[in-house]
């Protein structure tokens, strides 16, 4: 599923439901479009979110197991997610402020959603592209569709993203957190619980 930058930004900024637009833009070669009964499609949705989540991630939420550990002082994260269960798709708009230095993680990327309750650690289930830009505002946005891969093997040897479905987040957002890791703060520069 492809989105333009402007369309994706609008989707995640407003969490609005999109509806199809019709017309052939004056191109007479597409006259077949005019034969469709547009009323048959007026209630169709181009793409929708079953759940939207906005998380403020902070350095004081980082944990090693259940032990608090320092994240990066004064760093902040804003994680916006839109989840479509039927398509097993999660769209994201992630902004990190005050996160400095190189990213580091044993996973494919250093920006994740992990499965664990508040105050505990747990395995990554989703790995997002790391936000890019200057240290005062690093940004990453797009969509991921399953099957997912984190690059981290679980206890059974399977990837911790294998067989994960975004409906698990919709069913229990309090059981998940998001974070981003750097070389200086390998356990997390910032972290925030999804609910």
TrEMBL record:
Q: Spell out the InterPro entries in the cross-references.
A: CHRD (IPR010895)
Region (Disordered), start-end ranges: 115-134
Keyword Signal in record: yes
Q: Which residues cross the membrane?
A: none
User: Record keywords: Signal included?
Assistant: yes
The region annotated as signal peptide is: 1-18
- Boundaries of each CHRD domain copy? 51-195
Domain of life (superkingdom): Eukaryota
Please name the Pfam families in this protein's record: CHRD
Keywords of this entry? Signal
Q: What name goes with this protein?
A: CHRD domain-containing protein
